[in-house]
Amino acid sequence: LHPPHPVPPTAPPFPLSYHGSPRLPPHPFFRRPLHPRPPPPLLLLLLLLLAARPASSSPASHAIPLAKGPAAVGSRRGLPAVWTQIVREEELGVWERWVVPRRWVRREFEAPMKGGIVSVGMYYITAYFGGQPVRVQVDTGSSDVAVPMKTCHSCRNGDKRFDPSASKTGLYQEIMCNDALCRRDVCDRLPADTCPACDADSGACCYTDAQHADPGCAFLLRYADGSGAEGSLVRDVVNFTENGVGAVALFGGIFHDSSNFEFPQVDGILGMAYKALTCTPTCIEPVFDALVREGKVEDTFTLCMAYEGGVLTLGEWDPAVFTSDIQWGALSFSAEPMYYTFELGGGMEVDGKFVSLPSFRVAIMDSGTTLMTLTRETFTALSAEVKKVCNGSPICDEDWFRPSICMKATLEEISTLPTLAFYVGGQSGARLELRPSDYLIEKTYQDMKTYCVGFMIADSMSGIDSVVGNTAQIRYATIYDRRTSRLGIAESTTDCKPASGSNVPNSAPPAAPEQELPEPTPVAPIPSFEPAPTQDPGANPFAAAPPTTQCSDTSRCESCAARADCAWSYTAHHCRDLAELNAVAANVPFPYCHGRTCACKEEKYVARGAMIVAAVAAGILLIVGMALGASVYRRRQARIRAEEVMRALEEEEEGSVREPMVGEMD
Question: In angstroms, how far is the first alpha carbon of the chain from the final one?
């Protein structure tokens, strides 16, 4: 066995990414959307007739081609600098409009991700702004959407930039400083020298430079490490896929940024957190919220990350990439939702033994952070516990378990280290387990295989004890179910692709009524904790439970409708758990039905309905054609008879004229 060989810390062992929130605290801006209206009966009948068409053999999805870049050394972003001034604004209701009913929502869109925890230090997709491809980091720790503009004078050469003159939608618009959408009376409430310029009449924060004849509505991003970007708000169509799902949205057009704002492989940022984080300083609607408002996707998305690449799924999750059941943990909000915040439970399990840790109560799930972030006192306590368990191991040393440190070791050697586990949503939530190969990240350094500690320290995180970054997300797919304020955790395939020939376990979450969720309880110290009994390592954890009959085992409408926990799909012709639809029996979204509301007998004739309608239409066309043909034939015959009569009359008239002439000759 090799003794530990720490790698000299001359440079970060791999690029780190740590995006945070924008600088302003939350501000109200949007009204709640209007209640959806049901479709008229004729439209519902038409949908039933269209449902008779054969279902597609595979679900529709939109894959985004993305380029892979070389490894690069990045920078640690750090938490954002927070403006302490509270800026309020009356609700303008700019985005209030009729919302498409949920029954018309497209269920699933997939966008492949590129990047990696070692090669790039972040994960990104290629989104399309005005039809132009731009590489943007997928960040659940912020809500900002920003891309470099063509005229950006400080952006890196080679960036994929947004060119307003090349927009393919014809909807591009730069928001001016005097526009009603630009936040008013804000300059005096912000720290000095924050805004590049201020409008004297409205007090709006403006952006101006030599290229702007008229000042634009300022868009500002500032982070604690000094990195940031600025420009003006612009509007155009933003698509998550090249020709697929998208919406008209406001986003930041970057005209100036710092050298360490993004890595060379990435151009901009795509924030996926809540809209309370989008005041920079004008509060705008996030792009994902716009998709949900327009009824194009459900208010949920899933991130599956592999060591290299991954998949972003908008709408309902795809259980084909899961290799375990989904565990659910509740999100915890003390006020208006900002981050994906949850309770931790006060400690970790170290090889099955629960250990209380200081400052380990509240965390956020953040795909924009590379490593799992802890406070200094939390990491110190955790390091001491890990060293106790691995005492005597050849790779254990008093200095080896330090933040981001890398050491030479083999997979067999690190397997002697303890397994860690913590809870998402408190002790009753999802248990997230980290094996040594999960929290020690494999990295090749100077042709030498090393393993790097996947934790880092942050001294101040604005009331947050931990940031769960990519270290804890590689092994799992994370479901951000914003409809019911929950996070779902399930083990995923190593490449985030559907496992061929494997049985997909039950992925149904517990039934969630559509009532208002109760207020989260304050985090209180936990006096004691009994760890869950450990299982036989040789046993299959997913085969222990006795088999049960699932809704998916029912293939007939009548049998499905007779079950209290199932719903029948008119379009896909299969039975599904009510819990998967996040619905109760009294409110099942169309095209699903439940119980007596299912027209199973009528459904047998739905497939024939389209044929009958087509036959009737063909018959009507045939009858009309025959009638027109008969009419033409009758008219032609009448014309022929009329011509014959005219000829007869002409002949008779000529004969009557000739007879007197013969008499006169006699």
Answer: 150
Q: How far apart are CA 392 and CA 194, in angstroms?
A: 55
Residue 615: burial class (beta carbons within 10 Å; 0-12, 13-18, 19+)? exposed
pTM equals 0.64
In whole angstroms, give the CA distance from residue 393 to residue 398: 12
Q: What is the pLDDT, as a whole number, of residue 604?
A: 52
SS3 510: coil
Distance between CA atoms of residues 582 and 483, nearest Å: 9
Pick from 557, 561, 610, 574: nearest CA to 45: 610
AA identity, residue 128: Y
User: For the chain, what percentages of helix, strand and coil (3-state, to nearest 5) are there?
Assistant: 20, 25, 55
Residue 551 has pLDDT above 90, yes or no: no
Phi-psi region of 12 (alpha: psi -120 to 50; beta: other; left: phi over 0): beta
264-274 pLDDT, tens digit per residue, is: 889 999 999 99
The tens digit of pLDDT for each residue in 579-606 reads 777 666 656 766 778 776 677 755 555 5
- β 145-148/132-139 pair status: unpaired
| Closest to 127 in 3D by CA, of 117, 114, 143 | 114
Half-sphere exposure of 333 (CA within 13 A, CB side): 16
Contact 37, 104 (CB under 8 A): no
Cα gap 3→20, rounded to integer Å: 38
The Cα-based distances of 310 to 66, 145, 327 in angstroms read: 11, 20, 20
- Asked if pLDDT for residue 315 goes beyond 70, the answer is yes
253: phi then psi, degrees, rounded to nearest 5: -95, 115
- Ramachandran sector of residue 115 (left: φ over 0; alpha: ψ -120 to 50; beta: rest): left
Which of 178, 182, 283, 269 shows the shortest CA–CA distance to 229?
269
Cβ contact 471:422 at 8 Å: no
pLDDT tens per residue across span 190-205 = 888 888 889 888 999 9
321/477 Cα distance (integer angstroms): 8
Here the tokens at position 398 are 């008093």
Regarding beta strands 448-453 and 455-457, do their DSSP bridges make them parallel or antiparallel, or are they unpaired?
unpaired
- The DSSP string of 62-120 is -----------------PPPPP----------TT--PPPPGGG---EEEEEEEEETTTT
* Predicted local confidence at residue 176, as pLDDT: 93
Contact 22, 80 (CB under 8 A): yes
- Is the CB of residue 362 less than 8 Å from the CB of residue 425? no
Q: What is the pLDDT of residues 206-241, one digit of tens each?
A: 998 877 778 999 999 887 667 889 999 999 999 998
- DSSP bridge partners of 217: 206
Which structure tokens are listed for 352? 């099955």
